[in-house]
Design goal:
Elements lengths: L4 H9 L7 H42 L10 E4 L15 E3 L5 H13 L3 E2 L2 E2 L5 E2 L5 E2 L1 E5 L6 H19 L3 E3 L4 E7 L3 E6 L9 E8 L6 E3 L2 E4 L5 E2 L7 E5 L3 E21 L4
Antiparallel strand pairs: 1-2, 2-15, 3-7, 4-5, 6-10, 7-9, 8-16, 9-16, 10-16, 11-15, 11-16, 12-16, 13-14, 13-16
Length: 271
């Protein structure tokens, strides 16, 4: 005879004859489906919650401007915080792109090319010297077997930085790298933008800090996109990246000499 839970309780508690082993078995067999349904519901809720938390963590990591899996890339400009995937960043920097020994090697290459007085593009499109606008010495480091290692390293880091932060359509580097020296007492470069040159559209500008900052004073690279200029990092071997339309300049060097390596990556016209 089948019994329900009420009969079972009445017989077991109110003094009736105790249930048999068969009745115990039948009762628990009836309760088992309810137990497993409840257990399965709890497990399913825990599984859904764990998946939700996992997606949430991945989204946070994806949108984090600090790139954990690349020890070279350290920081995105503060005025681009919080990081937005559809926004072109103002600037970014990468630390220790070149070692101190490599920086000295680049300086030696640049000096061996006998730097000349730096020029600017005049109103008629001609290159002219104008010391009140730009006072520096420059030479051009072209790709060759002795300098190929510089281009290879820069190509790798530029591709990574552009992919993570700028998302510009770049086609390559169509100009030689520029070695630049700013010397005391007033080596400087007034605010300017890196415009089109020889028909090529400069889209991403790059500056490598070659000189140990303890060896000179002044010479800060400034970027202008807000009310106050942003002074970027000066550590030796650091690479500074910014879109070529960003207004920037170099403050006067008051002591010592600041050397840098400058490059421009080109692409299709901005849309």
């Amino acid at each position: 005879m089948l019994i329900n839970s009420r009969d079972f309780k009445a017989r077991g508690v109110c003094g009736g004859s105790p249930p048999t082993i068969l009745q115990y078995t039948i009762f628990f067999n009836l309760c088992q489906p309810l137990f497993f349904v409840k257990y399965f519901t709890i497990v399913l809720k825990l599984y859904k919650y764990s998946k939700y938390e996992s997606k949430k963590k991945k989204k946070i990591k994806k949108n984090n401007p600090i790139i954990e899996n690349n020890p070279i890339i350290k920081y995105v400009g503060a005025n681009s915080w919080p990081f937005q995937r559809d926004h072109v960043e103002t600037w970014a920097w990468a630390k220790d792109v070149f070692s101190p020994e490599e920086c000295q090697k680049i300086i030696k290459i640049g000096n061996n090319l006998k730097p000349q007085l730096g020029k600017i593009i005049g109103k008629n499109g001609q290159e002219i010297c104008k010391k009140n606008v730009r006072k520096s010495l420059t030479s051009w480091i072209s790709p060759n077997p002795d300098t190929e290692w510089i281009y290879i390293k820069l190509q790798q880091i530029v591709e990574e930085m552009n992919k993570k932060f700028f998302k510009l359509h770049l086609t390559g580097i169509n100009e030689s790298l520029q070695f630049t020296k700013y010397q005391a007492p007033d080596g400087h470069y007034h605010t300017h933008i890196d415009k089109m040159y020889n028909g090529y559209i400069r889209k991403l500008s790059l500056t490598i800090q070659l000189t140990d900052p303890s060896k000179y004073e002044g010479g800060e690279l400034e970027l202008f996109q807000q009310d106050k200029p942003l002074v970027v990092r000066k550590e030796q071997g650091t690479a500074i990246f910014f879109p070529s339309y960003v207004l920037h300049g170099v403050k006067p060097v008051t002591k010592g000499e600041r050397c840098s390596l400058v490059g421009w990556f080109t692409g299709d016209p901005f849309k």
